[in-house]
């Protein structure tokens, strides 16, 4: 009597049981030695010894289930594989980042008197690594280690803005849940918002989008290999003039970037030079934001 879990494979590669399928899927995932590997079909066939047709079929299934992703560069680890493999989601492993950021955050708080936040992007969420200052007048204040959807806070949007559109779609595939009546919940509108952030040289704003009565302005901390973190100033909407702090928040982000990546050529780092024309652009786009 045939086991109900066994199915004909059709590829001549021996056995079709669930255990065999799991073994073959594992061998394919094991071919990705480093998190950033991009492999083509022939690379995977050579690494696993599986027939080409079997490899192609399993790769399609792994892409559909988000274990892998596929692009013009080949196959790469997907959302689920990266999460299980230790994508940054906790507070450990960020000593260099926090060491570079804390002095700048403290100076930023002393200069502005506002709550200063440092966070990283963990898939579609922001994880707060540090906060400086106390928002006694704020309805809510994030705790270190706390999480919030990236699409509804300034430092989250600042980090999302520098990702590729297809990566943003993959991160936000489950939808944008409303936290308040002003939260952006439409993916196409979020892409518009992220384009506007890029046009403002990376400055992101949020007005009551996460917690009613709280607004923030943020920027991404970037190194040549991509976005590392985000920082933000947050305060009571009624009291906080976000535009006033645009130059200092961008300068703070660049100083942290320079500390983290001291050997990077200046041309590879985000610019912190603000001309009158750039400021006028930011203010004009901010006025447009107010009517969205």
> What is the number of domains?
2
Measure the end-to-end span: 66 Å
* Annotation, overall tally of beta strands: 8
**What is the CATH top level name of the largest domain?**
Alpha Beta
Q: Count of helical segments?
A: 10
Mean pLDDT: 79
Look at the helices and sheets and give the structural class. alpha+beta
* CATH architecture call of the largest domain: 2-Layer Sandwich
The helix content is: 25-40%
Largest sheet: 6 strands, antiparallel
Shape: elongated
Plain-language structure description:
Residues 19-79 form the HTH iclR-type domain. InterPro entries: GAF-like_dom_sf, HTH_MetabolicPath_Reg, Tscrpt_reg_IclR_C, Tscrpt_reg_IclR_N, WH-like_DNA-bd_sf, WH_DNA-bd_sf. One of its GO terms (molecular function) is DNA-binding transcription factor activity. Keywords: DNA-binding, Transcription, Transcription regulation. Pfam families: HTH_IclR (PF09339), IclR_C (PF01614). By secondary structure, the chain is an alpha+beta fold. The protein folds into two domains: 18-84, Winged helix-like DNA-binding domain superfamily/Winged helix DNA-binding domain (Arc Repressor Mutant, subunit A), CATH 1.10.10.10; 95-290, GAF domain (Beta-Lactamase), CATH 3.30.450.40. Helices cover 39% and strands 18% of the residues. It has ten helices and eight strands. It has helices at residues 18-30, 41-48, 52-64, 79-84, 95-112, 154-160, 165-171, 187-199, 246-260, 276-290, and strands at 68-71, 74-77, 115-122, 125-132, 147-149, 204-207, 214-223, 226-236. Strands 5-4-3-8-7-6 form a six-stranded antiparallel beta sheet, sandwiched between helices. Strand 1 (68-71) and strand 2 form a beta hairpin. The chain is elongated, with a radius of gyration of 22 Å. It starts with 17 loop residues before the first helix and ends with a helix.
């Amino acid at each position: 009597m045939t086991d109900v879990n066994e199915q004909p494979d059709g590829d001549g590669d021996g056995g079709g049981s669930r255990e065999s399928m799991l073994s073959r899927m594992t061998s394919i995932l094991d071919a990705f030695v480093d998190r950033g590997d991009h492999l083509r079909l022939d690379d995977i066939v050579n690494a696993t010894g599986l027939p080409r047709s079997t490899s192609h079929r399993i790769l399609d299934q792994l892409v559909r289930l988000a274990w892998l992703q596929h692009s013009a560069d080949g196959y790469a680890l997907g959302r689920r594989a990266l999460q299980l493999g230790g994508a940054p989601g906790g507070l450990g492993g960020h000593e260099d980042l926090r060491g570079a950021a804390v002095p700048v955050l403290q100076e930023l708080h002393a200069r502005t008197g506002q709550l200063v936040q440092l966070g990283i992007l963990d898939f579609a969420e922001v994880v707060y690594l540090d906060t400086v200052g106390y928002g006694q007048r704020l309805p809510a204040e994030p705790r270190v280690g706390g999480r919030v959807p990236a699409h509804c806070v300034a430092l989250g949007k600042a980090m999302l803005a520098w990702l590729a559109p297809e990566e943003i779609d993959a991160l936000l595939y489950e939808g944008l849940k409303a936290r308040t009546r002003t939260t952006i919940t439409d993916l196409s509108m979020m892409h518009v918002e992220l384009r506007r952030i890029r046009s403002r040289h990376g400055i992101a704003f949020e007005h009551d989008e996460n917690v009613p009565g709280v607004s923030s302005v943020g920027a991404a901390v970037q190194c040549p290999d991509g976005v590392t973190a985000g920082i933000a100033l947050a305060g009571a909407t009624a009291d906080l003039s976000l535009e006033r702090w645009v130059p200092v928040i961008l300068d703070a982000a660049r100083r942290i970037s320079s500390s983290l990546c001291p050997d990077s050529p200046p041309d590879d780092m985000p610019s912190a030079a603000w001309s009158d024309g750039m400021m006028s652009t930011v203010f004009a786009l901010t006025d447009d934001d107010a009517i969205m």
